[in-house]
Amino acid sequence: MNSVSTSDDICRKQYYKEVDEYIKSIISKFREKTVITQVMHDRIIECLTNNNSSSYNARFISWCRTTFVIQNTGAKFLLYDSKTKKAVLIYESMYNVYKHTHIETAHAERDKCLDSLSLNYSWYNRKLLQLFIKNCSACQKRKPIVKPMLSKPIIALEFMARVQMDLIDMRTRPDAMSDRKVYRWILQLKDHFTKFCWAKPLEHKESREVYNCIREIFFMFGAPAILQSDNEREFVNELINSLQVDFPVHGRPRHPQSQGLIERTNAILTDALGKLMEDNSSNHWSLGLPCVIFRINIRSTHTTRKTPYQLVFGQNPRTNMSDEHGHGTVVFRKSKCL
After folding, report:
1. How far is CA 185 from the centre of its chain?
2. For the Integrase catalytic domain, which residue ranges apply (predicted)?
3. Are 236 and 167 in contact, with CB atoms under 8 Å apart?
4. Spatial separation of the C-alpha atoms in residues 225 and 211, rounded to whole Å
5. Residues 84-99: what's their mean pLDDT?
6. Which residues lie across from 250 on neighbouring strands?
7. Closest by alpha carbon to 101, among 118, 122, 86?
8. Is this model's pTM higher than 0.90 or not?
9. Predicted confidence (pLDDT) per residue in 51-86, tens digit
10. Burial class (CB in 10 A: 0-12, 13-18, 19+), 305
11. Closest Cα partner for 251 from 259, 240, 260?
12. In contact, 219 and 158? CB cutoff 8 Å
């Protein structure tokens, strides 16, 4: 625990060192308002709550009154942006907020992290967020080396119109939960329209075990019009024949190039799963799989600019984790899923 804390302290100091260097490189008239420090935060609140503001110049008073609003919680005053009505991100809290956001979006790139931050924060900085992501140790250790496969465009117009399925081979890193239960495969399904994902750990690559997992998902969300897979034709035909007992689903074996969506998602899933295991120092990827899938489903996609969770359920996910201001839900505490 101490070694983890020491490592995090080193990363924090290095990050703020680079942040300070970046702020110093900005033109002086913009430097003070690039980020809101705790000292500036207190000055703004004092200016807005003090009827006698003679100690501040007119320009600063005007800027405070037009840019910020305050909320009295009884214990203390909280500062919010007047336009977005969202909490102001303080310089001293940047590292923790950026870290939690990056982890809880499954180590997503900058734009996905920005979408998550914008739900509850204002005055965050794109450049400083990118600086944090660039120095993320888990991302540095697991840089993608395989170029994405070019895929044929496939159009889906509604949820569950087309679902792509694939099996991820984890036999090189089996998860032995007990002497009798060893997971060696991951079954992943992805809805083509909303990009919503499901994933289940499997012990064997058998149509009966896959059928049981898919059957459970389809009874919860409904069956797709088309279930697409690039696995062996005999495997797909046997699976579809089993599913058609309960659902009017049609199978469609496809060439891997037309499976681009699920192939890219496989890479995203395994990469995020490896980073979660790195963060939690664990080898039980089957326990972290639901956590990673949830995080992937609550981060925005480039095509829709919304999260798959929003498109499927029509609302943001509920959690019992609130931000440091006690307002809204933006990040989770330390992951306990592993």
Report:
1. 23
2. 149-316
3. no
4. 16
5. 91
6. 226
7. 118
8. no
9. 656 678 888 888 999 999 998 877 788 899 999 999
10. exposed
11. 240
12. no
Predicted pLDDT at 259:
58
198/216 Cα distance (integer angstroms): 11
Delineate the domains of the chain, giving CATH numbers in brackets. Answer: 7-142 (1.10.340.70), 162-313 (3.30.420.10)
Q: What is the mean pLDDT of the chain?
A: 82
Residue type, 236: V
Using only C-alpha atoms, what is the Rg of the chain?
Answer: 24
Share of the chain above pLDDT 90, in %: 32
The two tokens of residue 216 are: 């459970």
CA–CA gap between residue 133 and residue 108 (Å, rounded): 9
CB 216 within 8 A of CB 209: no
CA–CA distance, 121 with 123 (Å, rounded to integer): 7
Determine contact, residues 215/332, Cβ cutoff 8 Å.
no
Q: Do residues 274 and 292 touch, judged by C-beta distance below 8 A?
A: no
pLDDT at 150: 47
Mean pLDDT of all residues in 87-101 = 91
Contact 201, 194 (CB under 8 A): no
Q: Hey, what are 187's tokens?
A: 């079954």
Residue 107 one-letter amino acid: H
Q: Which residues contact 304 (CB under 8 A, 6 or more apart)?
A: 194, 195, 311
Give dist(CA 101, CA 167) in Å, integer.
29
Question: Counting every residue, how long is the chain?
Answer: 338
Grouping H, G, I as helix, E, B as strand and the rest as coil, residue 333 is coil
Task: Give Cβ neighbours of residue 83 (< 8 Å, ≥ 6 apart).
Answer: none
Distance between CA atoms of residues 90 and 296, nearest Å: 27
